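Now for a concrete sample entry.
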Amino acid sequence: MKPMTILPIMLLALVLLSCGQVPTPAPKVNPTAPAWPAEAQPLVDLARAELAKVVSATDIEVVKVEAVQWRDGCLECAKAGEMCTDAIVPGYRIVLRAAGQEFEYRTDEKQTVRACPSTTSAADWGEAQPLVQQAVADLMVRLAVPMDEIQVVSVESKMWSDSSMGCPEAGQAYLTVIVPGYQIMLEANNSKFDYHTDDQGTVFLCEQAAQ
């Protein structure tokens, strides 16, 4: 074959190859990248820090982070008697999991993070949930036990008849006023512990009632 006839054949082969589809590599995916917007990360960190104050679990899992337009300044999670501004507040709903339970936190877009009862919680105590978490956290410290060794036996709404909140101490004077709150019964180490609260965040162990 003459050398001049080889060149057209090579050119034809190159044209045919160029018509074929060359497979493109799949884009690389970082499996450790969070599945939420980067601007939400500081709020996720704040929520995890708040939960770490309540539970002793070393591993706090982020279950969900979703953008929400809250309809009031309390992020639709007002405490009893709390006044909320009537305004649209953009923020996030953050659901965390620790020690076998889920906890919901609500945020604005800045630094406000509020614990709020979660509809997906293993146990939902309504408005009393932050108070239950405080009682559990207190008992964890007292007994030096992890959260999963403490059982919430009951949460009962109360209208205490005076400022002792159903747990008077000898020699102490108390105001005769109605104090709305809760009686929270916990069990750990085969003993029961009676916590009394108001609805403003005061939570204490009624020592003489502990069994």
Summary: The longest strand covers residues 61-70. Residues 127-209 form one domain. The CA atoms of residues 80 and 199 lie 7 Å apart. The chain has two domains: 38-124, 127-209.
